[in-house]
Design brief:
This protein is mostly helical. It is about 90% helix and about 0% strand. The chain contains 4 helices and no strands.
Length: about 100
């Protein structure tokens, strides 16, 4: 493995290690939205899912990207907390597998 490949592998490992924290932030935004109806929390959920969808694809995690995109679009198009929770649960399941 050359130096570039080592650096890329290191970046991928760091990204994978940070996935849980990213999802916890999204989960916090959903929790805030569910308890208060805060449009800011819903917007932050949308932005967090959008960022995760893009970065996951960049780092070679297409399944995570697809489900994060589903959550992103759901946050944009729906304010149904149970539906959003279902999408978040699906995302967490894929990340933990």
């Amino acid at each position: 493995m050359n130096e570039l490949e080592k650096k890329l592998a290191e970046l991928n490992e760091r990204y994978a290690a940070d996935l849980g924290e990213r999802v916890m932030k999204i989960e916090g935004f959903l929790s805030e939205y569910a308890s208060s109806g805060s449009e800011d929390a819903l917007e932050n959920l949308y932005k967090g899912a959008h960022a995760l969808a893009g970065s996951a694809r960049t780092f070679g995690l297409p399944d995570v990207s697809v489900v994060a995109k589903e959550l992103e679009l759901s946050a944009r198009d729906s304010n149904d907390v149970k539906f959003l929770q279902t999408k978040l649960t699906k995302l967490k399941r894929i990340i933990s597998s």
